[in-house]
Amino acid sequence: MSAPANDSQDYVGFDTITQQMERKFLKRGFNFNVILVGESGMGKSTLVNSIFSSHLVDSQGRRTAQEVIRKTTEISPVTQTLEENGVRVRLTIIDTPGFGDQCNNEGCWVPVIKYIKDQHAAYLERELKPQRDRVINDTRVHACLYFLNPGSRGLRPLDVEVLKRLTEVTNVIPVIAKSDSMTVEERTAFKRRIKEELVFHRIAVYPYPSEEDCDEDRALNSSIRDLVPFAVVGSEEIIDVNGTPVRGRRHGWGVINIFDETHSDFVHLRNFMLRTHLSDLIEVTSQRHYEQFRTSQLRQIKELRAQQAAAAASGGIMGSMPQQVPPQVPAVHQPMA
Amino acid sequence: MKEGSGEEQNVAPSVYSHVSRPGSHRYKSAKKGLPFNVMLVGESGLGRTTFLNTLCERVVIPPREAGNCEQAHIAEPMQFKHYTVDMEEDGMKIVLNIIDTPGFGDGIDNENCFTRIQEYIEMQYDNVLAEENRIKRNTKFTDTRIHALLYFITPTGHSLREIDVELMRRLGSRINIIPVIGRSDSLTPRELVLFKQRVMNDISANGIPIFNFPNSDDDEDEESVEENAELRAMLPFAVVGCEEVINEEGRPVRVRKYPWGVVQVDNDEHSDFDRLRYVLLNSHIADLRDRTQNGLYELYRTEKLSGTNIIAGTAAATNPAAVAPTAAATGSPVVQPPMVPQSHPVAA
């Protein structure tokens, strides 16, 4: 690593830390975990494959009559390593086939919330081990793409229930994936309506306003919040438009180019998720959601120990000193209904 | 429609003559329109309202008010909303009675929607059954039996969802179900073809009864048979509805405008809307009515009468004058309903 050209003896050189960190980072790579929540047929797989420009996940939708209709929400994680310019990411996409697909969808969110909390719990458990790994494999969910139904007038009852719970445990980004059946007016009205309803129900979607933000960040976040929910169109197909290859959809009345900003918010979503807010998504997961989980878990453990101590003290002979309770995080952690 | 024996409207109908059952009267088209009762079922956002408004070429169901945010999480129970529209199609007057079902499938738990719709359909049959069994019948009886149920499927691109299968399976033997793909402009032509195939495979694999344009017994002419085959191949009908009309080369055209192009609702290449409209209001209106009255109703009637203990009406009509005053009692005696249900031929 060549030192900066400044040879003056007053030059300290701590500004090279960014390069030192980058080297470490390049060697280690990083994890990025995204969960997809939405009914089947909303375009989840296609969108994710479009965002990462590769066929990462297969659609889990029911294609043939022989396939049985799912009765519950399944959790289906797929991990792949992608590399770009020497930077490696271990990307895990968690699909949730069966979510919202039944006649009675009561509780269909429970496996999803449980999975997210389980990852926090697993991380906490490893953190609390007397002998910790140098680098804990981070399986915590950094982002949740929540798929809204185009055509609904606003949030549906199921959306409200699920979003309230999801936003408490992870960064939620609401999207409309098959927005090519909405006219521009319909899209605008829908977005406005969704934003109103989110505010009314106090559902906090990502990005969160934060005091640390400088003016530039605030402006960027504000413009992103304006776009929510992202009205996108995904496609794994390259079609020919007057000789130019275009990633899009060919209808009988026109061709959609998913990168065209007048056609869809796809570019904005991808830039937001990967080019401007990727590290923030990871950091906020750790600093906000994981911390909340950790605090509540440790409090529970403390209370449990206090109860046991009290029981032992009042129990007299039978109660000896309560044995050191190892942080059995998974046991204490109850999936929230 | 089968040729009747030319009975006038105000004859006290005999139970045995199937043409003169309540509701199957031949209406003089000059005065009244032919009643046609259609139910629309589908989750909100699939275009039921727009479809109806487009069909009638006027705003029958006004766009739903945005309402306030507090309502969003409250799942309104499904309602049955009635609308009546006078239509004229090819010189034939039709009184279109629509029953919309806003709230279907919109809640978290939608299990009871099916039962409620089934009860509603059967209630109309019960009304007819009760009317038939009356000693003194009402010749102005309004037949509210539903002739067709348009079921709107979400354009997922996959196969049927549980709610689709359940609805069609439970109601298919009570009512003519015509499956329709709502918002079909979200699918590309290729996706649409595949989706239609998948849906129809699902329907036949699960043994779901739908109205699949059966050839009735006296359809001997090749043209009808061919037409039915063609329509069968189009199922489920892909509809796009819209209420915006623009002027194209002097003609009013109904369109949906996107940044990448304009969908023309009446263009057969863009949607099956026109064909479906023709089926409902013109080519198959008689078939749908006939199958309801002479097939599905009879099936229900048989099931109901054999399943329950119906004791024949006690008082025989002794005084013909006591029977409907307007009855021109031209020798057709009022007969008590038989204790043993007649087995009427069920139309295909």
UniProtKB/TrEMBL annotation, chain A:
Keywords of this entry: Cell cycle, Cell division
Cell division in keyword set: yes
Top-level taxonomy: Eukaryota, Fungi, Fungi incertae sedis, Zoopagomycota, Kickxellomycotina
Protein name: Cell division control protein
TrEMBL record, chain B:
Keywords for the protein's UniProt record, in alphabetical order: Cell cycle, Cell division, Coiled coil, GTP-binding, Nucleotide-binding
Repressor listed as a keyword: no
Keyword Cell division: yes
Gene3D superfamilies xref list: P-loop containing nucleotide triphosphate hydrolases
A GO biological process held by the record: mitotic cytokinesis
Region Disordered: start-end pairs: 1-26
Domain Septin-type G: 32-307
Any GO MF annotation of the entry: GTP binding
A Pfam family recorded for this sequence: Septin
GO cellular component: cleavage apparatus septin structure; septin complex
Family statement: Belongs to the TRAFAC class TrmE-Era-EngA-EngB-Septin-like GTPase superfamily. Septin GTPase family.
Protein name: Cell division control protein 11
Lineage, broadest ranks: Eukaryota, Fungi, Fungi incertae sedis, Zoopagomycota, Kickxellomycotina
This protein's encoding gene: CDC11_1
